[in-house]
From TrEMBL, chain B:
It holds the Pfam family Transket_pyr. It comes from the Bacteria. InterPro entries: PDH/Transketolase, THDP-binding, Transketo_C/PFOR_II, Transketolase-like_Pyr-bd, Transketolase_C. Residues 10-175 form the Transketolase-like pyrimidine-binding domain. PANTHER family: PYRUVATE DEHYDROGENASE E1 COMPONENT (PTHR43825), TRANSKETOLASE-LIKE PYRIMIDINE-BINDING DOMAIN-CONTAINING PROTEIN (PTHR43825:SF1). This is Transketolase family protein. SMART domains: Transket_pyr (SM00861).
Amino acid sequence: MKHTISELEDIASQVRRDVLRMVHAVQSGHPGASLGCADFFTALYYEVLNHSPKFTMDGTGEDLFFLSNGHISPVWYSVLARSGYFEVSELATFRKLDSRLQGHPTTHEGLPGIRVASGSLGQGLSVAIGAALTKKLNNDKGLIYTLQGDGELQEGQNWEAFMFAPFHKVDNLIASIDYNGQQIDGPTEKVLSLENLQAKFEAFGWHVITSDGNDMEQIVKALHYAKSLTGKGKPILNLMSTQMGYGVDFMVGTHKWHGSAPSDAQLAVALSQLKETLGDY
Amino acid sequence: MKKYTYTEKKDTRSGFGAGLHEAGKRNENVVALCADLKGSLKMDDFANDFPERFVQVGIAEANMMGIAAGMTIGGKIPFTGTFANFSTGRVYDQIRQSIAYSGKNVKICASHAGLTLGEDGATHQILEDIGLMKMLPGMTVINPCDYNQTKAATLAIMEHEGPVYLRFGRPVIPVFTPADQKFEIGKAWMVNEGTDVTIIATGHMVWRAIEAGEKLAELGIDAEIINIHTIKPLDEEAILKSVKKTGCVVTCEEHNKYGGLGESVARLLTTELPTPQEFVAVNDSFGESATPDQLMTKYKLDPADIVAAAQKVIKRKA
């Protein structure tokens, strides 16, 4: 371990503060799943990924991460900045004119750490599979990690990709699902039920593991375990339960904070629940 | 009128297949992806000789476009192959976000464009693809005119950094451009110098424009014929130079008149040099089942239609 669990939890707390302050500053953005995935992003970038903040598009020899549910950009931007891809002060430009921190992540403005645009849902896994195939052709041992929302799985392109990866033995790929059961219009169970996701992925030929994405110790363990399963002929799927809005008591477990910004008073209450550990930007 | 002859007829899709095979030999970073149309796209030689660099995606075009975008990360040059309809309209958002907006070096290669795939009918005869693709910022759009030009274009786009849409087709048509030609993206090809009217043609319509030029010559009309194989970026200099001389223009394309080459030329001329223009193109319609020749006649894309348009536009000159 590069960090103790307690150190990682402290980083995640700062990341959650960043997320809330970024979204509050422009009164727009998606705090709910950003908070829910703060532990995953922290574990991934601080503990699991073999990566360099001296970013290159090709990332030769490195592990690569792709975010398919691009609307949770605040959490990604915070973790990228906190791990040295760009200045933390740049977080203050989020969603503002001429910023590299667009509402949804993009390569277009040249922000280090981003390798493809995402926002229109359902496209990230296909792109990740392509990058994984190129790693294999180049005999590059780096791994490919992805994150997708669960509501996003309603997009059909995902299932084309879920079918492709096992058939083509894309076993350098670890796909995580943010399984929070919420989407814009309400619980996934009511909008369009995902039914038995684990059984679906297993039927498609993935090696499925499950984890609690809001338990730092578990998520670190799960990602290391997933890594140990690579190179064995199957892609790995981490079905990761999280709670939307995790870390702030009045935001947790509801779709209402999917795409809404906190007021001044709500921000103050939320920040009082999250330790400032690395200094606010 | 300069004399053009041919000794054989071939399909432009075979020019693509030959070009792709050659590209695979020249550059080991070239990879090819196909959505269950390997034979129709003439990708067999590439797939047989470079099996590790050929990806059969199955009938899943959206996934194919995403995989192609991802394969560029690490330096591959992906060529995707399927029909024009499934290369554009079906996957527009995947191309827009994962390829064009993300600036990925993907070559979208599209066969069976236009009416001339024939009997399969309108579900497969896309006439809107040039418009869809030229509207994407940073996208290069190329529609070559015969086997040799398609092969040369396929090799040229391998060298070009950035997303490209390469459009070609199914019918067997005359091979009249040189086998050893150098294809320059964005450079018009002067087919015939003339003084009375400029005929600008792309794709399968270039040979038809030559046939129309011969007929016009018999009628005493000296037509300048320009092949615009690259619709975006448009060779504005060549078009303006010609139109300054002739004072009128006919554009010819196997595409809807909305959104195609004709509108690109009209936009240029309206801004720089207002000029009478006639459009030989499909008049805002879907196609239908029939033989390619029957369709080209019914939808007014024959040499006779180009001749009539030229006569009409000459009368409109001030």
